[in-house]
Design a protein that fits this description.
mainly alpha; Ferritin; about 75% helix
């Protein structure tokens, strides 16, 4: 399997995983965030497919963290009580691992890329996966300690995230 097929397979897997997580929760805010992440994975799939077809596909910079921050704020303002079972929390931790592996995969392939345009795109994909990782880590914090998370407005902010670390 070539790099493009492998990357597209990873993106499809992540999309389906997020959609399954969204189906498991009754919380509208979490459902929206998870479906947003699934949509982001679809965009990554299309970017990799364009690279495979030698088109100059460029991943669009997203403001996924800003959207998520707004959703967390709405959830905090309307929160009464959240109850998550441990298996759901484990699934969010698995999502973190998926995002870490995807980020690392794109960084590795960027280092190996001979084409400078491909290298740039792969680094951008790694950056997008890193944004997803930050978001999913916040989701892990949320499902592990929803009351504390929602009481502490500092926890759900994404302002501490710095882009371009790669």
């Amino acid at each position: 399997m070539d790099i493009f097929e492998f990357a597209m397979e990873k993106e499809k897997y992540a999309e389906h995983f997020y959609r399954e997580l969204a189906d498991r929760t009754d919380n509208t805010g979490l459902k929206n965030i998870l479906n947003m992440l699934a949509g982001e994975e679809v965009k990554h799939y299309e970017t990799v497919k364009a690279m495979q077809n030698q088109a100059s596909g460029k991943p669009a910079a997203t403001d996924v963290l800003k959207h998520a921050e707004k959703t967390f704020a709405k959830m905090r303002d309307g929160a009464k009580h959240f109850d998550f079972d441990i298996s759901e929390a484990d699934l969010y931790r698995k999502a973190c691992e998926i995002e870490k592996k995807s980020r690392d995969f794109y960084l590795q392939k960027a280092g190996e890329a001979k084409d400078s345009n491909h290298r740039t795109i792969l680094k951008q994909l790694a950056e997008e996966e890193n944004k997803h990782l930050v978001l999913v880590q916040r989701l892990c914090d949320f499902v592990a300690r929803p009351e504390t998370f929602l009481e502490n407005a500092e926890m759900y902010h994404f302002d501490d995230y710095v882009e371009g670390e790669f």
